[in-house]
Write a structure and sequence with these properties.
Chain B: This is Substrate-binding domain-containing protein. Chain B: InterPro entries: ABC-Tungstate_binding (IPR052738), PBP_domain (IPR024370). Chain B: Pfam families: PBP_like_2. Chain A: It is found in: Cell membrane; Membrane. Chain A: Belongs to the binding-protein-dependent transport system permease family. The complex is a heterodimer of chains A (about 230) and B (about 325). Chain A has about 230 residues and is mostly helical. Helices cover about 80% and strands about 0% of the residues of chain A. In chain A, helix 5 packs antiparallel against helix 8 and helix 10 runs antiparallel to helix 11. The longest helix of chain A is centred in the first third of the chain and has 34 residues. The termini of chain A are far apart. Chain B is of the alpha/beta class and about 325 residues long. The longest helix of chain B has 27 residues. Chain B is globular and about 60 Å long. The N and C termini of chain B lie far apart (about 75 Å). About 10% of the residues of chain B have low confidence. Classes of the chains: A mainly alpha (about 230), B alpha/beta (about 325).
Amino acid sequence: MDYITQGLSQAFILIATLNPEVVDITLRTLSITFTATLIASIISVPLGLYISFNNFFGKKTIISLIQTLYALPTVVVGLLMYMLLSNKGPLGIFGLLFTPSGMIIGQTVLIIPIITGLTIAALSNLDPGIRDTARSLGATVSQFFLSMLKEARFAILAAVVMGFSRAISEVGAAIMIGGNIRGQTRILTTTITLETGQGNFSLSIALGIILLLIALIVNMIVSYFQQR
Amino acid sequence: MDFKKSGLILLLIVLAGAVLMAGCTGTQSTGDAVATPAVTQTAEETPAVSEDKVLLIATTTSLDATGLLAELEKEFEEKTGTDVQITAVGTGAALELGANGDVDLLMVHDRLREDAFLKEGSATDRRVFAYNYFDIVGPESDPAGIKGMSPEDALVTIMEKGKTDANVKFVSRGDGSGTHGKEKALWKSAGYDYAENEPVWVKEDWYVEAGTGMGATLTMADEMNAYSLSDIGTFLKYSGDETISLVELVNEGDSLINIYGAMIISPEKYPETNVELSKEWINFLTSDGVQEEIQVFGVKEYGQPLFFPAKDAIAILSPSGVTQDEISAVIA
């Protein structure tokens, strides 16, 4: 029992003294996940807008497919990316396996379906009256899209945050693509996996607390914007 | 109709959410998923094995990855009607499981740490059942030109060339395993204090610290055209299966010996330890029959044995501090 309290107290010391290794791992995690979330959002939000406001053959199927991919297992993404990025694979020439860039690609692929799907859901919840008003006022296509985006901005922000949360908390793809290399591709979740295996609970607990803190801070920022 | 549709979507979202959560937890447990299939199978074959018939073993990954342990497990279970449950982790993690009393028995390969573990009374009755050698492996082109050097010279050469040549890299296990322990010992005998140098090396491009198991480390070294230190068993398995194209470059030298020991978690510290079955398992390992099996294991597939039996090898093992009793004394 005392090893739990010991682990907890050491964890707080590690965080309070800004242990360089803990800081390094945290910053790397944030930069990889933020980049992936940004790229995924740039792809997913316009894609969601397009799918939502256009009627085309197979639209329902596409939406079902996107929603199915919410459950895309991270290890499957890891496996696919490993095979693509490996020297034996088609993208091997770029040398992205075991690099932070490779991890960013993996996380981006993982969260595109979530952000796209939740963006579609956000837009479908808009009052149809708003669309008609915008159209009847003679809005151009781009004005129309911008006004829709403005109306649904909080729900879309929530979609982006959901994607971020999934990316930062996953470990399967991160280990398979990144390889958990110290000082290069070691992030919060992969370090917890490794250190717990070695019985270094205090560092694992510290990093676990940091992961939870990141989630808390991100959510606080979002609710601050929503309440304005 | 509308109500139906929205209900369906809601259901989908809830399902997706549930699956997402399951997905998150699921990925985290992949580590032990590797070890469980064997367990569930045996559980199905032998319905309701009583508690004193279950033996929990934490083992180093190399014994598991080569398939030797699976073979011995099957044989032992058939012979005794017990259920052997094996979790394959690095030696460091195995010792940790032992120190917490989470298993009955350890099968590891790091003499220094085993000695400390026995000394502090966490385990008893160590027996040595097999040995083989570590290898320094690397790309066939051998950019640092280490072929045929002593292991210590090879490591130092990789370090010196790696500092200036981007094509020379070394991938370290870096996970506190027995192999990682051997690497530290080699650096030490080459005149470099690992604890002092490692933080510096990690910042340099030539030293890659993987923090994963032997198999994953080998595939990483293969991808990077890098050198690595590997136990011969895992290396032969991976190169024999053509998973990797690395070759053995340094395999001479007594300092590369790799000794596998089994020991029982101290029942004085942890009364739940299944001592009877643990004794039976270790005596089974040191028995003549199994020793002969170890000698021929893998020869058919890989053209050479993956392990050597400890029996009759006292001359080779004694410089590392192994006694005759550790090899052949039956645990009463």
